Amino acid sequence: MGDNDAEHSEDERLSRRDRRIVPAILASLTLVHLLLVVCASQKAAIVWIELPLLAPLVVLAWKRRIGPVLPLCHATALIYQLVDPAVAVPWIFWFAVTLLYFVLESCKSRRALFGWGFWTGLMIATGIYAWLFDALHTFFEFGYAAAFALFLAIAVPIGAQLAIFLPLARWMADRTKLPLWLLVPPLYAMVEFWMPLPFPIALPLGFSRQPVVLQFADIAGTAGVTFLVASASVAIAVAIRGAMARDRRRAAWGTGAAAVCIATHLGYGAWAMKRYAPTEDAESVRIALVQPVAPLKVANKDVETKARTAETLKRLSLEALDASPDLVIWPEGAGAFASRTPAFNPEYMDAIREIQALHETPFLVQDIEFTRLRESDKLRYYSTAGIVFPDGSVSEPYRKNIRMPFSEYLPFEERFPVLREWLPEARSVLAGEESATLDAPGGPVLPVICYEILFPDFVRRGAAGSRFIANLTNDRWYGERQQPLQHQTFAVLRAIENRQPVVRCTNSGISALIDARGIIAGGERTATMEVATLTGDIHPRAGHSFYGRHGDLFARWMLTPAVLLLVALPWLPAWRRRTGVSS
Fold first, then answer.
1. Is residue 377 located within the same domain as residue 490?
2. Same domain, 418 and 531
3. Are residues 533 and 513 located together in one domain of the fold?
4. Are 405 and 140 in contact (CB under 8 A)?
5. Are strands 379-388 and 429-430 parallel, antiparallel or unpaired?
6. 280 lies in a domain?
């Protein structure tokens, strides 16, 4: 029997073992992971508990009891959880796509790759978005079983990102006969960019504590950052594979390519960090953020709780005013009041007026605006942001454009009225039609409310007329797991993309002042569930970045057409003749 026949026979025996052993291991790993998601403390990073489980998988693969794909997929899921902002192990993100590249080399079946991608994506999605389970239980008051079922239903489409990428990459490699190292970086970045969900499996989310890696976003957006990291990851994979095969040329080529990618990436980042550092003569505005940890739900008839919350806001605001800020900001959820309807929950506006009688300082607040629908005469409201000036006037409001589905409104409610019975806690907030800036000290400010900060193109279009961005949010619904840090990372990305400071004021943390480089000013930020104030200087900027002017030019008009061209290659007659691909 020849060497090739012996190797083929061994691979068949390994495949049979995989079919017997791997399903049991997968089921065990999944069960342990989901139990940790549900049962672990909100402050615990479950990845540290799961990490030791990788060792026996590596041993089993080393002894050829199982194939290499399972430990590679499990390690990939762990890496994505390790680079999550809540854990933020530095620099390990360079290897995120490296292991996926090895999976593609080890598995030739597109059907199997779909399954492996689905499982890996599900492990990642349920790991980094574990806070969704807590939010469903807290906000909607679902029982644990119902909250868990809905949590999985949300995690499945998020995790589908890898179930799309892996088989598509294998199909393209098989059909075009192009090397994987050429196909993987643009395809990975493109799939990540076009995933329609607001909660992505996005590599840039892991870089909030290494903002030097994110600076390229001011040119090519987050897709550009992903492309550079994926390119370096694939080059590292080529170098490792060359070293394992004792192919010096391949190892040297991969090492050199990785060095060039990383040097280019970090080189631009270092230049941008210096280029956009505030100068001593730069205009500054002092901002005071109030973080009251106001209650989640307060009934209009609960006068005592409203009075207590208003008193807390007043006390914290007066403390912050000792530092002579130019603007005081209250977060989303500080109190349910309407500055344009003083008779509605007057406690909060009364507190502002009492403060402004002592300090002539404007307040940027999130409140609501009532309106009556013409077609039904029903009373509805917008979630708005506006500035209350010391002279008693209130600015024209910004009406929140992007509402959170199933929280601020119910999709398909008119067609399926039963949804209102199932989700009585869901609100009926109306959507505004356009972004708007407010005149504030330091120039026009772009208010974005809650998770509007997740949408780069929306923020970019609004920031065209602003000098800084204010993100007012209430994250108390989501507990103390990863969500506050993830939400903060999106604010960091928007600051870099638009080269404008972002002021992040939250009800329960994390509040922060982020400069145009994505650096938290002075390294200061509040903790979660901390009643606190934060005062500091920002440097408003009127200039805009390449990304701010042109948007996702790289992802839409360069990356995507390049991938589509590669997809089309197998149908070109000349290409089929050259590569021998059948029609």
1. yes
2. yes
3. yes
4. no
5. parallel
6. no
Let me know whether 215 and 326 are in one domain: no
Domain that holds residue 112: 18-275+560-579
Q: What is the CATH number of the domain that holds 545?
A: 3.60.110.10
Domain identity same for 364 and 422: yes
Rounded distance between C-alpha atoms, residue 565 and residue 56, angstroms: 43
**How many independent structural domains does the chain possess?**
2
What's the CA dihedral at 74, 80, 81, 84 to 10 degrees? 180
The set of residues, in sequence order, having a beta carbon less than 8 Å from that of 291 and lying 6+ positions away, is 316, 331, 505, 506, 507, 508, 509, 511, 526, 530, 531, 532, 533, 534
pLDDT tens digits for the chain (583 residues)? 444 444 444 445 555 566 678 888 999 999 999 998 888 766 677 888 899 999 999 998 888 888 899 999 999 999 999 988 888 887 888 888 999 999 999 988 899 999 999 999 999 999 989 888 888 887 777 888 888 898 899 899 999 999 999 999 999 999 888 899 999 999 999 999 998 877 788 888 888 788 999 999 999 999 999 999 999 999 999 999 999 989 899 999 999 999 999 999 999 999 999 999 988 888 899 999 999 999 887 777 878 888 899 999 999 999 999 999 999 999 998 888 888 888 888 899 999 999 999 999 999 999 988 887 776 667 788 899 999 999 989 999 999 998 888 777 777 777 777 767 677 666 778 888 888 899 999 999 999 999 899 999 999 999 988 999 999 999 888 777 788 888 899 999 999 999 999 999 999 889 999 999 999 977 788 988 899 999 999 999 987 799 999 999 999 999 999 988 888 877 777 666 666 665 5
Q: Considering the domain boundaries, does residue 3 fall inside one?
A: no
Q: Which residue has the tokens 């050259």?
A: 578
- Does 544 lie in the same domain as 400? yes
